[in-house]
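Annotated sample (chain length 207).
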Amino acid sequence: MFTGIVEELGEITAVEDLGDASRFRLRGPVVTEGAKHGDSIAVNGVCLTVVETGDGEFTADVMAETLNRSSLGALAVGSRVNLERPMAVGGRLGGHIVQGHVDGTGRIVSRKPSEHWEIVTVSVPADLTRYVVEKGSITIDGVSLTVVDAGPDHLTVSLIPTTLALTTLGRKQPGDPVNLEVDVLAKYVERLLGAGQPPTAARTEGK
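Output written by the structure step:
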């Protein structure tokens, strides 16, 4: 489990095409300290398994499903990425509960700078908008953020200078893809509220 508090702005140093997958090599001396084969590291909000580590870098295999359903497929050598290690037991939950399981991708729609922060608008896929609420939590490229406005097909967030400087969100431009993970609690609530309800076909039978 992660918290959406990015520890390090890393960089893709190599990409190897494996046919139905890709192997990424990433530079991240902070997150690789003490890391070993089989550990997890979130890359732009996607939980990946460490294959090898050395000299402040690590490799991870990314299967086709992940490449197709996240923005990782658009990464290339030189791309900057947000990195986070899993939260240690007993650690502080600085953001919110983040699984590292991307629900879909959106795109930066616009950026509106102000003196002390920046308002960023992000498109949201139609099947995810029901999980996005004003003042609720959202994970964008692995960054835990609070929703300022929840529109019918978009959301807005306010980014403070620290977030702009230390994560990829300070570099993303309109049109760039971003990974979205909605609050898992919202999905569980939806599932529980629907528990015990007959299928739609049965409810409408005879009407």
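Annotation: Residues 8-84 form a domain with the Elongation Factor Tu (Ef-tu); domain 3 fold (CATH 2.40.30.20).
Annotation: The chain has a mean pLDDT of 90.
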